[in-house]
Protein backbone atom coordinates (compact mmCIF):
# COMPACT_ATOMS: atom_id res chain seq x y z
CA UNK A 1 0.00 0.00 0.00
CA UNK A 2 1.22 3.49 -0.85
CA UNK A 3 2.47 5.59 2.06
CA UNK A 4 -0.33 8.18 1.75
CA UNK A 5 -3.12 5.73 0.95
CA UNK A 6 -6.49 6.63 2.54
CA UNK A 7 -5.01 9.45 4.64
CA UNK A 8 -6.69 12.38 2.87
CA UNK A 9 -9.91 13.53 4.47
CA UNK A 10 -12.55 16.26 4.26
CA UNK A 11 -10.21 19.23 4.72
CA UNK A 12 -6.72 17.68 4.62
CA UNK A 13 -4.92 16.43 1.50
CA UNK A 14 -2.08 13.93 1.93
CA UNK A 15 0.34 12.84 -0.80
CA UNK A 16 3.71 11.10 -1.10
CA UNK A 17 5.92 13.38 -3.24
CA UNK A 18 9.00 11.19 -2.68
CA UNK A 19 9.80 7.94 -0.86
CA UNK A 20 9.16 8.07 2.90
CA UNK A 21 7.95 11.71 2.75
CA UNK A 22 4.36 12.91 3.23
CA UNK A 23 3.01 16.26 2.09
CA UNK A 24 0.10 17.30 4.31
CA UNK A 25 -1.98 20.20 2.99
CA UNK A 26 -4.64 22.12 4.92
CA UNK A 27 -7.55 22.65 2.54
CA UNK A 28 -10.62 24.17 4.17
CA UNK A 29 -11.84 26.98 1.94
CA UNK A 30 -11.90 29.88 1.98
CA UNK A 31 -9.29 30.66 4.70
CA UNK A 32 -8.45 27.40 6.52
CA UNK A 33 -10.43 28.48 9.57
CA UNK A 34 -10.22 25.73 12.19
CA UNK A 35 -13.53 24.42 13.43
CA UNK A 36 -13.61 21.72 16.10
CA UNK A 37 -14.10 19.12 13.38
CA UNK A 38 -11.07 20.43 11.49
CA UNK A 39 -8.63 20.47 14.43
CA UNK A 40 -9.76 17.01 15.56
CA UNK A 41 -9.21 15.74 12.01
CA UNK A 42 -5.75 17.37 12.04
CA UNK A 43 -4.62 15.76 15.30
CA UNK A 44 -6.10 12.39 14.40
CA UNK A 45 -4.15 12.31 11.13
CA UNK A 46 -0.73 12.51 12.79
CA UNK A 47 -1.70 10.04 15.49
CA UNK A 48 -3.00 7.63 12.86
CA UNK A 49 0.23 7.78 10.85
CA UNK A 50 2.17 6.81 13.97
CA UNK A 51 -0.25 4.16 15.22
CA UNK A 52 -0.37 2.43 11.83
CA UNK A 53 3.42 2.27 11.65
CA UNK A 54 3.64 3.89 8.22
CA UNK A 55 7.26 4.24 7.14
CA UNK A 56 7.23 8.05 7.17
CA UNK A 57 10.64 9.61 7.77
CA UNK A 58 9.75 13.27 7.26
CA UNK A 59 6.60 15.28 6.57
CA UNK A 60 5.89 18.71 5.13
CA UNK A 61 2.85 20.66 6.36
CA UNK A 62 1.49 23.47 4.18
CA UNK A 63 -1.70 25.14 3.00
CA UNK A 64 -3.45 24.20 -0.23
CA UNK A 65 -5.08 27.65 -0.35
CA UNK A 66 -3.13 30.01 -2.64
CA UNK A 67 -3.29 33.20 -0.57
CA UNK A 68 -2.66 32.11 3.02
CA UNK A 69 -1.69 29.45 5.54
CA UNK A 70 -4.59 29.92 7.98
CA UNK A 71 -6.79 32.66 9.39
CA UNK A 72 -6.85 30.79 12.71
CA UNK A 73 -9.80 29.47 14.66
CA UNK A 74 -13.29 29.43 13.18
CA UNK A 75 -15.02 32.29 15.03
CA UNK A 76 -18.29 30.36 15.21
CA UNK A 77 -16.55 27.67 17.25
CA UNK A 78 -14.75 30.30 19.33
CA UNK A 79 -18.16 31.64 20.34
CA UNK A 80 -19.32 28.16 21.40
CA UNK A 81 -16.46 27.93 23.88
CA UNK A 82 -18.04 30.65 26.04
CA UNK A 83 -21.61 29.35 25.68
CA UNK A 84 -21.46 25.80 26.95
CA UNK A 85 -18.34 24.35 25.39
CA UNK A 86 -17.75 22.50 22.16
CA UNK A 87 -19.59 19.40 23.39
CA UNK A 88 -22.81 21.36 23.82
CA UNK A 89 -23.36 20.82 27.55
CA UNK A 90 -25.61 23.34 29.24
CA UNK A 91 -23.97 25.38 31.98
CA UNK A 92 -25.37 23.96 35.20
CA UNK A 93 -23.07 26.07 37.33
CA UNK A 94 -19.68 27.75 37.10
CA UNK A 95 -17.69 24.78 38.36
CA UNK A 96 -19.26 22.31 35.92
CA UNK A 97 -18.93 24.77 33.08
CA UNK A 98 -15.25 25.21 33.89
CA UNK A 99 -14.66 21.46 33.91
CA UNK A 100 -16.32 21.12 30.49
CA UNK A 101 -14.25 23.99 29.15
CA UNK A 102 -11.07 22.47 30.60
CA UNK A 103 -11.75 19.28 28.64
CA UNK A 104 -12.28 21.27 25.43
CA UNK A 105 -9.04 23.22 25.83
CA UNK A 106 -6.97 20.14 26.65
CA UNK A 107 -8.43 18.25 23.66
CA UNK A 108 -7.56 21.22 21.47
CA UNK A 109 -4.01 21.41 22.82
CA UNK A 110 -3.51 17.67 22.32
CA UNK A 111 -4.65 17.82 18.70
CA UNK A 112 -2.52 20.80 17.71
CA UNK A 113 0.51 19.30 19.49
CA UNK A 114 0.29 16.10 17.42
CA UNK A 115 3.36 16.79 15.22
CA UNK A 116 5.55 16.74 18.32
CA UNK A 117 4.39 13.20 19.14
CA UNK A 118 5.56 11.88 15.76
CA UNK A 119 8.88 10.03 15.63
CA UNK A 120 9.67 11.83 12.34
CA UNK A 121 10.38 15.56 11.83
CA UNK A 122 7.55 17.78 10.59
CA UNK A 123 8.61 20.75 8.46
CA UNK A 124 6.00 23.49 8.07
CA UNK A 125 6.06 25.72 4.99
CA UNK A 126 3.94 28.85 5.36
CA UNK A 127 2.89 31.61 3.01
CA UNK A 128 0.54 34.56 3.26
CA UNK A 129 -1.25 35.09 6.56
CA UNK A 130 -0.49 32.97 9.63
CA UNK A 131 -2.94 34.21 12.26
CA UNK A 132 -3.74 33.15 15.82
CA UNK A 133 -4.02 29.38 15.85
CA UNK A 134 -1.62 29.32 12.89
CA UNK A 135 1.20 30.32 15.24
CA UNK A 136 0.18 27.52 17.66
CA UNK A 137 0.30 25.06 14.76
CA UNK A 138 3.72 26.02 13.45
CA UNK A 139 5.22 26.22 16.95
CA UNK A 140 4.57 22.49 17.45
CA UNK A 141 6.49 21.60 14.28
CA UNK A 142 10.21 20.82 14.11
CA UNK A 143 11.33 23.21 11.36
CA UNK A 144 9.57 26.35 10.15
CA UNK A 145 10.09 27.91 6.68
CA UNK A 146 8.24 31.01 5.48
CA UNK A 147 7.76 32.56 2.05
CA UNK A 148 9.12 36.09 1.95
CA UNK A 149 5.69 37.76 1.98
CA UNK A 150 4.35 35.83 4.98
CA UNK A 151 2.68 37.76 7.80
CA UNK A 152 2.07 36.53 11.33
CA UNK A 153 -0.04 37.57 14.31
CA UNK A 154 -0.46 36.15 17.81
CA UNK A 155 -4.04 37.30 17.54
CA UNK A 156 -5.75 35.96 20.65
CA UNK A 157 -5.64 39.12 22.79
CA UNK A 158 -7.75 40.82 20.13
CA UNK A 159 -10.65 38.48 20.95
CA UNK A 160 -10.17 38.77 24.71
CA UNK A 161 -8.05 35.81 25.78
CA UNK A 162 -4.50 34.66 26.24
CA UNK A 163 -3.36 32.18 23.58
CA UNK A 164 -4.01 28.77 25.14
CA UNK A 165 -3.24 26.10 22.53
CA UNK A 166 0.55 26.24 22.44
CA UNK A 167 1.99 29.58 21.39
CA UNK A 168 2.74 30.90 24.88
CA UNK A 169 4.19 27.55 25.97
CA UNK A 170 6.40 27.04 22.93
CA UNK A 171 7.61 30.51 22.01
CA UNK A 172 9.71 31.17 25.12
CA UNK A 173 11.44 27.84 24.41
CA UNK A 174 12.04 28.32 20.68
CA UNK A 175 12.63 32.05 20.27
CA UNK A 176 15.77 33.92 21.16
CA UNK A 177 14.33 37.44 21.20
CA UNK A 178 11.94 37.41 24.15
CA UNK A 179 11.39 41.15 24.05
CA UNK A 180 10.14 41.03 20.45
CA UNK A 181 8.09 37.90 21.13
CA UNK A 182 6.36 39.52 24.12
CA UNK A 183 5.76 42.71 22.16
CA UNK A 184 3.91 40.75 19.48
CA UNK A 185 1.99 38.59 21.98
CA UNK A 186 0.78 41.58 24.00
CA UNK A 187 -0.15 43.75 21.01
CA UNK A 188 -1.46 41.18 18.47
CA UNK A 189 0.43 43.23 15.88
CA UNK A 190 0.99 41.81 12.40
CA UNK A 191 4.67 41.00 11.94
CA UNK A 192 6.69 40.06 8.88
CA UNK A 193 8.73 37.01 7.96
CA UNK A 194 11.81 39.12 8.68
CA UNK A 195 10.55 39.80 12.22
CA UNK A 196 9.70 36.11 12.63
CA UNK A 197 13.23 35.16 11.60
CA UNK A 198 14.73 37.80 13.90
CA UNK A 199 12.62 36.43 16.73
CA UNK A 200 13.72 32.87 16.00
CA UNK A 201 10.22 31.64 15.13
CA UNK A 202 11.29 30.59 11.63
CA UNK A 203 14.65 29.32 10.45
CA UNK A 204 14.52 30.41 6.82
CA UNK A 205 12.82 32.96 4.56
CA UNK A 206 12.31 31.55 1.07
CA UNK A 207 12.18 33.98 -1.88
CA UNK A 208 8.88 33.63 -3.74
CA UNK A 209 5.54 32.34 -2.57
CA UNK A 210 3.66 29.12 -1.87
CA UNK A 211 5.29 27.03 -4.60
CA UNK A 212 8.82 28.02 -3.67
CA UNK A 213 8.50 27.58 0.10
CA UNK A 214 6.91 24.14 -0.31
CA UNK A 215 9.68 23.11 -2.72
CA UNK A 216 12.33 24.19 -0.20
CA UNK A 217 10.62 22.29 2.62
CA UNK A 218 10.28 19.16 0.47
CA UNK A 219 13.97 19.36 -0.43
CA UNK A 220 14.87 19.34 3.26
CA UNK A 221 12.41 16.50 3.90
CA UNK A 222 14.09 14.47 1.16
CA UNK A 223 17.48 14.93 2.77
CA UNK A 224 16.16 13.88 6.20
CA UNK A 225 14.33 10.87 4.73
CA UNK A 226 17.65 9.56 3.42
CA UNK A 227 19.14 9.39 6.93
CA UNK A 228 18.85 6.58 9.45
CA UNK A 229 15.32 6.68 10.90
CA UNK A 230 16.74 5.40 14.19
CA UNK A 231 19.17 8.32 14.30
CA UNK A 232 16.62 10.94 13.25
CA UNK A 233 13.87 9.77 15.61
CA UNK A 234 16.38 9.55 18.46
CA UNK A 235 17.64 13.04 17.72
CA UNK A 236 14.08 14.40 17.85
CA UNK A 237 13.33 12.68 21.18
CA UNK A 238 16.58 13.85 22.74
CA UNK A 239 16.10 17.44 21.56
CA UNK A 240 12.58 17.53 23.00
CA UNK A 241 13.84 16.14 26.29
CA UNK A 242 16.64 18.71 26.34
CA UNK A 243 14.15 21.55 25.92
CA UNK A 244 12.35 20.62 29.13
CA UNK A 245 15.20 19.33 31.33
CA UNK A 246 18.61 20.28 32.69
CA UNK A 247 21.84 19.46 30.86
CA UNK A 248 22.67 16.78 33.43
CA UNK A 249 19.25 15.17 33.11
CA UNK A 250 19.45 15.24 29.33
CA UNK A 251 22.91 13.64 29.28
CA UNK A 252 21.57 10.84 31.47
CA UNK A 253 18.56 10.43 29.18
CA UNK A 254 20.79 10.42 26.08
CA UNK A 255 23.08 7.78 27.55
CA UNK A 256 20.10 5.52 28.31
CA UNK A 257 18.59 6.12 24.87
CA UNK A 258 21.80 5.42 22.97
CA UNK A 259 22.64 2.37 25.06
CA UNK A 260 19.78 0.79 23.13
CA UNK A 261 19.91 2.78 19.89
CA UNK A 262 23.61 2.10 19.22
CA UNK A 263 22.70 -1.55 18.66
CA UNK A 264 20.92 -0.60 15.42
CA UNK A 265 21.82 -2.19 12.10
CA UNK A 266 21.63 1.30 10.59
CA UNK A 267 25.24 1.98 11.62
CA UNK A 268 26.87 -0.97 9.77
CA UNK A 269 24.51 -0.32 6.82
CA UNK A 270 25.66 3.31 6.66
CA UNK A 271 29.32 2.29 6.74
CA UNK A 272 28.78 -0.37 4.08
CA UNK A 273 26.94 2.12 1.86
CA UNK A 274 29.77 4.66 2.14
CA UNK A 275 32.33 2.00 1.26
CA UNK A 276 30.28 0.80 -1.73
CA UNK A 277 29.42 4.37 -2.79
CA UNK A 278 25.70 3.70 -2.77
CA UNK A 279 22.68 5.06 -0.93
CA UNK A 280 22.01 3.24 2.36
CA UNK A 281 18.84 1.16 2.73
CA UNK A 282 17.23 1.38 6.14
CA UNK A 283 14.47 -0.79 7.57
CA UNK A 284 11.27 0.84 8.86
CA UNK A 285 11.11 1.65 12.56
CA UNK A 286 8.00 -0.54 12.90
CA UNK A 287 6.05 -3.09 10.94
CA UNK A 288 3.06 -1.39 9.37
CA UNK A 289 -0.40 -2.29 10.68
CA UNK A 290 -2.09 -1.63 7.34
Automatic annotation (TrEMBL):
Record flagged with keyword Transmembrane helix: no
A GO term from the CC aspect: mitochondrion
Hydrolase in keyword set: no
InterPro entries: ClpP/crotonase-like_dom_sf, Ech1-like, Enoyl-CoA_hydra/iso, Enoyl-CoA_hydra_C
Molecular function terms, GO-annotated: delta(3,5)-delta(2,4)-dienoyl-CoA isomerase activity
Keywords: Fatty acid metabolism, Isomerase, Lipid metabolism
Pathway the protein contributes to: Lipid metabolism; fatty acid beta-oxidation
Gene3D superfamilies per record: 2-enoyl-CoA Hydratase, Chain A, domain 1, Lyase 2-enoyl-coa Hydratase, Chain A, domain 2
Example GO BP: fatty acid beta-oxidation
Pfam families: ECH_1
UniProt family annotation: Belongs to the enoyl-CoA hydratase/isomerase family.
PANTHER family: DELTA(3,5)-DELTA(2,4)-DIENOYL-COA ISOMERASE, MITOCHONDRIAL, ENOYL-COA HYDRATASE
This protein's name: Delta-2 dienoyl-CoA isomerase
Amino acid sequence: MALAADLSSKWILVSEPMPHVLHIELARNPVNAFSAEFWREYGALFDRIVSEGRDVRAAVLSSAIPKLFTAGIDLADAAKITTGGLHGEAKVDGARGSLALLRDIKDFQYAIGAPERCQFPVIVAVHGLVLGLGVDIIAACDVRYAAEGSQFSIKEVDIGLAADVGTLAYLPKITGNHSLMREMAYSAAIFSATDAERMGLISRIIPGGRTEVIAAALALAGVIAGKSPVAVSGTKRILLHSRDHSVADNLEYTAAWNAAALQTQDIPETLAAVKARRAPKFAPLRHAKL
